[in-house]
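Bit of a strange request maybe. I'm writing a small parser for structure token strings and I need a real example to test against, not something I typed by hand. Could someone generate the tokens for this chain?
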Amino acid sequence: MPSQNQIIIYDLGANNGDDVEYYLLKSDLVVCVEANPKLCKLITERYQDAIELGRLVVECLVITDEDHHDQVEFYIHNDHHQLSQFDKPREKISDQFTKVELPSSPVSSLIKKHGTPHYIKIDLEHYDAQVLRSLFANEIFPPYISAESHTIETFSLMVAHGGYTAFKLVDGRSVPSLYHEHSVTRLDTQSVVSYSFPSHSAGPYGDDINGPWMGADMFFKLLAIEGLGWKDIHATRCQTADSLGWVRESDYLLRFANRRFSVMERLKIAMRLMKGALKSLVAKTLK
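Reply from user aminoacidic:
Good idea to test on real output. This should exercise your parser:
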């Protein structure tokens, strides 16, 4: 019987388990879900001690949004296991995958089995939106949640169906450099420790992510600047969006400018941002 007092993290799409070590620092129990049997075996071997201590559960199955536990078709990428997926690949790239049949479970059944989530990480290669929709339809609203932003639907579902009000963005490509020897807070001792996130890991969640929480309107502008793709949208229902979120937006605008413009053009953009920020600050002060 699941304990209602445990801090439980669900790693949906655990891949090779690179996020597990960090999640063990942040929770009482980690529930790893991975479809690829070879990767499940690897995770089990890597974290045998945590499994024996009852701190890690590895579920080797395909997450679905439907209420059945049948065998389903799954497509394992022949060269890059991170790209394996539940949805049938486009015909143009279908020769890059091997089709297998694997056990499945709806996400709601997994949570009923293991307990109320504190944080859910979703990384299911083009299936994130379906799982988000299933979670919210079953009235499962974890305090913290994240999903990849390959389409704007991810953000739309979090706002319209999930009721989430504060957001952060983690760029997958920048995780190993931006979060190298990064300060994170352990759950058990509440002490701050240094942790380096490996390449292809999801990176930190919650307050361990750099920067303030942003409201939906400002975050939507941020997505327009940064674009979609290999970026995780993190959302919460238990934090207040920072009223100075425009500072974070300015950071991203400058990053965008660095990629696209000359030095002189970047200086002009920086000056305009400073003027805009000053006007916003004055307007907030006068209210």
